[in-house]
Every structure is written in C-alpha cells, then in structure tokens.
Design a protein that fits this description.
The protein is an alpha/beta fold and about 280 residues long. It contains 10 helices and 12 strands. About 35% of the residues lie in helices and about 20% in strands. Helix 1 links the parallel strand 1 and strand 2.
Amino acid sequence: MLRITGKTDVYGIFGFPVKHSLSPLMQTAAFEALGIDAVYVPFEVNPDNLGGAVSGLRAMNIKGINVTVPLKEKIVPFLDRIDEVAAFLGAVNTVKNENGVLSGYNTDGDGFVDSLEEEGVDVRGKTVLLIGAGGSGKAVAFALLNRGAGRVIIANRTLDRAVALSEKLKSYGDVEAISLEDVERVLSSADLIVNTTSVGMRETDPPLFDYEVIPPSVVVVDIIYKPFKTELLKVAEEKGAKIINGLGMLVHQGARAFRIWTGKEPPVDVMKRVILEQL
C-alpha cells in the first residue's frame, strides 16, 4: 500500500488534457517496485499558465515531470538547460529538477528504438520507411539515425514537411523524402515500416496506403497502442509480417525518464505489466 510521508518525493506529468495519461500508473508502480518513497501525479496545465507551473516546480521542489502534448515545445524556453537530443527536436518530454535547476530531455525516440530491440529488431544498417513528419516522426527518425539505421525514407501527406525534416536530418545519415503516394514504390527496399501518425486511432480512418501490398519480409511498427492493433498491423500480420505496436515505446520512454530522475535501472517488466492490465 502506498504510504505518503513528509519525506515522499513528488513527480508528475504536465499535459492539457492529461486525464487519459497512463504514466501515473506506470511510474508509481516503478517507484513501488524499487521501494522508492515517491509519488507521481497528473497536472493539467493550460498552455497559458505554463510559466507559472514551471515556477511551481522550483517553488515546491517537485523532483521531475514528464511533458506531453501540447506542451513539449512550449516548455523549452522555461528550462535552464536541455540536452542535445531535446535541442535538436525543439521538444522536451522529461524534466529533472536538481536544487531548482531544471534540465530538459527527450526520451521518445530512444524509447522507440529500445522497444524494437526488446522485440529482437536491430535497426543497424536497415532501411526504414517512416510515415509522418510531425513531432513523433522527427523524434523517431533522429533516434533511428543515431542508433545506426542505414537509411530513413520519410513519407508524408504534405511532401514539403517531409523535405524540410529530411534536410534537417541529412547531416546525421542517409535520408530521403517522398510523398505518401510514392510509398508503394519503395516498399520492396524497406526492412521496417513505421507509422508515426495518428492514422489508425479511429476505425473510420482511411488507410495510409494499400496495406495489401505489404511484403511478409518487413517489420511493421505503429506507435499507436490504443487500439492495441491498428488496421495497418492487422493486415501486416495477415501478410506474415512481424508487427509491433506502440506499447513498448510508451514503456521505454517512461523507463528512460525514470532512469534520468533516479539514477536506477527501471523495472520495465513491472511498468509494462500495469499498462497491459489497464489496457
């Protein structure tokens, strides 16, 4: 049973809205598993009040927070320092408070690659067809290149956004931008297909491309975890492809945040179990 005393440290998550977040469940379970005297709570922060909320972190000595939409980019100017990954992405999802000094990090992309490794997928030297050029796409593409992917092909409905992202990434590795209409042309050269868009969260969403042409040799990943299996993953599985959903990314980005805050190895199995039970 959770016991709160005068020595209990406080962690949390900033978002707007934030009621849907599974992070409080996951991080609290992690603290309990390791016997750390801490709690993790949700803070619904209106973007207009973000400056005051960040000042509150210092004033109340809240030890750390996660940051979710729409605050990941907006919080950057309020922090004392950010790491190289967060600086490149222009977005922070983890903040550590050390005696009033607030440091920002972004664990999304590396958490994604960690989740692939957990499933036995090595990205080194691989060609990745990445769909989406938004915030998640940028984080995932950057991490893939940093972790040794041979080539990343970014496909986006608006080609200009894919081109802009590929230009930003080209000093980190081999990157190409294509429109969504050209996806089927490059499918045969891809080792992994990764959807970083929100397409698939609703049953009425149209397909990103013709899923029937997915070859069985590829690994198909969708960063969506609710529904547990999107239409993209369902069809890919029917075609014989290995599929991975977004649950692992959720857990591993949280695990990296836990490591930043505590310096301890996170109990990933516990974190994953409580999320699975909730879903």
